[in-house]
Amino acid sequence: MASVSNSKPKMATAFLLLITFLGILSNSDGFHGFVRHCHHSTSRGWALHVSSRAGVLPPTVWIHDAGKDFVDEDENLEDGEVCLKSVKAFASPVVVEDNEPRFLSAGALVQRPLVGEDIRLVCDAWTADAILDEGGPNLQLQGACLVLDELLLFHLEQQQADPIGALQTFVVQCGSIEKESSCASNMAAKSRGFRPLQDLLRESSVYTKSTYFGGSLDGMVLDIEKARGAYGRLIEMDCPNHGTISKILQLLPDDDLVQRFTIKRFSAK
Known about the structure:
Helices cover 38% and strands 17% of the residues. By secondary structure, the chain is α+β, with helices and mostly antiparallel strands.
């Protein structure tokens, strides 16, 4: 049985390096072939409303499954870890004459190793940003939000029988807002209502250390009240990825269930 250490798994460094590598070396034939395939495949897409100039297209942002080889089992995962889903976000090219989409960000949902007899498995949603030559932070943020929403929805759908457990076992690993390779991903998590797990372990919440079996307490988890507000506002705004947002809201636990499982904690004065 694989043990869990308090150190971050090698997935963190390897994943960030892979994202940066793909963003910088986007002129490689292999990468071009992949994004051409994504561009012509069925995908979830939506247009950002920006002013256009002659020869410049308003960008469209979409996500696509990254493929089973995106996260390498030997290079990126610790013993016992399993990649459940990986996705990439792209934006249409800046200039009409260009035919290659821009790689914005990516994410992978990785299940931690099984510990003991417990069947509740914690999953880390690793997200990171590509290094863009063209395109502002707002564009990259849109891609990062799509990636995070897709991974969250997948996890909630897999854990429908236990909505509280679904919240407890979805931990976002998005890096620092200070770094170019993680700024948009970090902002996306905060905008969706995610907060540091260690903060919520000190407050009244549904989160408890026992869920993580002595493993890492780094990362962010959903603050259910903030998440309902964030996703609710997106629905009211008729957001472009309305279907995904609507499903997430439907799968979040209701107030009665949250209250029933909330652990009351009182900070010392």
